[in-house]
Design a protein that fits this description.
Bound molecules: ligand BES, zinc ion
Shape: globular
Largest sheet: 9 strands, mixed
Number of helices: 20
Helix content: 25-40%
Radius of gyration: 24 Å
Structural class: alpha+beta
Distance between the termini: 48 Å
Number of strands: 20
Strand content: 15-25%
């Protein structure tokens, strides 16, 4: 017996699910989904089958056409949930489980109408990565197992359902209900199962791409993401033909806890990307790149998460270079460096979480999450590229994608493949230090540009009175302004804040990266004029990337700590469970 993934009850000696058929009845009143999951094995199988569940109420299990079968739930594990053990009779080709999700299911956030843009109808969305699919569907919830799926989702009439799959028709389904059908023919890891239900409209952006959003935001979303087809073409140049047929996007309500989630055929995006100037579309480049690096070739478990995110960040920056040039790319790496240093600092007492090849037995993958697999990982990929040259690396990438298409691999499999294709390259870049040593190796590639050097030099002179001129400020792109702000000292005075706000017009920024960077500086300075804006942002937005630094920066003064606690008390019922946990962790670290 062998459990290859520390975050799943999956037993590798047992049959693998090949295909899932889902029937999901969405009940907004009770905040529950009534589900039936049918697992198909492809062959005739028998014996024990262990599935992952968390918070699911299991009603029955049966072999269709044959009748009920024995099942039992194991002890609750705080991270894994409960093992559902089914006993399959001889010749079983498929098995079905009837169940109810819990109103607290971590994969699901149920929003009241007031939490949406239109304020007219409730909204539901899922977020299954890392290990939350088991709160939505009983399944082998490990990326080692890939499944194709089909689903029928029944929702209140007037609402629309979308999934990480292609649409396969819809029809009325009894009084006041409507059913949407979906098909995902390619095999995906369960963390890419995704569902959203709400008042939704769409706009076509190209023959293979459209954006979905609430009617109130769909026009601005279509404008913001109009360049997506160009990105798809550029990404195809790197990795080969787009493998998932359509690339659609969904803009969620502001409580969505991430910037983007690469759900295949339907990327989920935070509405904070709608800056009004297309300055945040690097997140779309990132999620699109996952269509290859991740969705096509993914990590075998969360211990190899860097293979997923590190490659994707590298690809995102490469797309940025093709679209906007090397200066823009260098700024992207600089922002990444900033995030990396912040994460290394946060984990300074947990160095085992700063290696790329993680060991996560007994550790919740959401607690291990940081920018390290992203940025340290991307630097390892960039180092390999520099070592062998762009052309050879490009060919290597194509071979890598071909060799591991639609599979989930370990760091060790990756290294074996690199050693075959690019002998000596791993040793030459000191890959072992990235994979197994904490921190960032000193030999890691550095990305510089003239503009980046100028911005750094200017920010370094802040304390001695160096200030940008109105001409400089006027010429900055949003990325340049952001890098400048990130390079300022973390502790500035209230007079400095007043200067910054006045000269850079920061309080009214629609670009959330800039706004939150500014508000974090202001919070750390106990700068009272920023408090109303801080409150507004924290009451509205649930993206963890913004909550963590902003609540963190509020920890420095008694008055700002009180403000943070008061805001959190009011805001937390509207936060996603994941976001709530992150903020609680930040508040617990405040001095008493
Ligand atoms: N797959 C991630 C989001 C994620 C990671 C969800 C881990 C759950 C667990 C997604 O691709 C991502 O990295 N999003 C980033 C965007 C980015 C440009 C780095 C985000 O949400 O900020
Ligand atoms: Zn990603």
């Amino acid at each position: 017996m062998h459990r290859p993934d520390p975050h799943s009850f999956y037993e590798s000696s047992q049959p693998k699910t090949r295909r899932l058929r889902l029937k999901l009845g969405v009940d907004f009143g009770r905040k529950r989904i009534e589900g039936e999951a049918t697992l198909e094995f492809g062959d005739a199988v028998q014996g024990e089958l262990d599935l992952d569940t968390k918070g699911l109420e299991i009603l029955s299990a049966k072999v269709p056409g044959q009748g009920p079968i024995p099942w039992s739930l194991g002890e609750e594990d705080a991270i894994l949930g409960r093992r559902l053990r089914l006993t399959l009779p001889a010749d079983t080709r498929e098995v079905s489980v009837q169940y109810l999700t819990s109103p607290e299911a971590m994969a699901l956030q149920w929003l009241d109408p007031a939490q949406t843009e239109g304020k007219q109808a409730p909204f539901l969305f899922s977020q299954c990565q890392q290990i939350h699919a088991r709160t939505l569907v009983p399944c082998q919830d490990t990326p080692v197992v890939r499944v194709s799926y089909q689903a029928e989702v029944t929702v209140p009439e007037g609402l629309t359902a979308v999934m990480s799959a292609g649409p396969a028709g819809d029809a009325p389904a009894g009084p006041g209900r409507h059913a949407f059908r979906f098909a995902m023919p390619q095999p995906i890891p369960t963390y890419l199962l995704a569902l959203a239900v709400g008042r939704l409209e769409s706009r076509d952006l190209s023959p293979r791409s459209r954006v979905w959003a609430e009617p109130e935001t769909v026009a601005s979303a279509a404008w913001e993401f109009a360049g997506v087809e160009d990105m798809i073409v550029k990404a195809e140049g790197l990795f080969g033909a787009y493998p998932w047929d359509r690339y659609d996007m969904l803009v969620l309500p502001p409580s969505f806890p991430y910037g983007g989630m690469e759900n295949p055929r339907m990327t989920f995006l935070t509405p904070t990307l709608l800056a009004g100037d297309r300055s945040l579309v690097d997140v779309v480049a990132h999620e699109l790149a996952h269509s290859w690096t991740g969705n096509l070739v993914t990590n075998a478990s969360m211990e190899h998460f860097w293979l997923n995110e590190g490659f994707t960040v590298w690809a995102e920056r490469r797309i940025l270079r093709i679209l906007h040039g090397t200066e823009a790319e260098a700024l992207g790496w600089a922002m990444g460096q900033n995030a990396l240093e912040e994460s290394l600092d946060r984990f300074k007492d947990e160095p085992h979480l700063t290696v790329l090849r993680l060991h996560l037995e007994g550790i919740d993958p959401d607690d291990a999450f940081s920018s390290i697999p992203y940025e340290k990982g991307a630097r390892l990929v960039a180092a390999l590229e520099r070592e062998v040259g762009e052309e050879r690396f490009h060919r290597f990438l194509r071979d890598y994608m071909d060799a591991f298409r639609f599979t989930s691999i370990t760091t060790e499999q990756f290294c074996t493949f690199v050693e075959q294709q690019l002998p000596g390259a791993l040793a030459a870049v000191g890959a072992d230090a990235y994979l197994h040593q904490p921190g960032l190796p000193e030999t890691a590639p550095v990305f510089r540009s003239g503009q980046l050097d100028r911005l750094s030099a200017l920010a370094e002179r802040w304390a001695e009175g160096g200030r940008p001129t109105p001409d400089q400020i006027g010429a900055w792109t949003p990325a340049e302004l952001l890098v400048y702000l990130q390079k300022l000292p973390r502790q500035v005075t209230q007079a400095d804040c007043a200067w910054l706000d006045q000269h850079l017009a920061l309080m009214g920024r629609g670009n959330y990266e800039i706004l939150v960077e500014w508000l974090s500086l202001a919070a750390a300075a106990d700068y009272e004029p920023a408090f109303p804006r801080i409150r507004e942002v924290l009451m509205k937005v649930g993206r963890m990337k913004y909550l963590r630094p902003l609540y963190g920066a509020l920890g420095g003064h008694a008055r700002t700590r009180a403000l943070a606690r008061e805001i959190f008390a009011a805001a937390s019922p509207g936060y996603h469970g994941l976001s709530r946990r992150v903020v609680q962790g930040v508040l617990e670290k405040y001095p008493a």
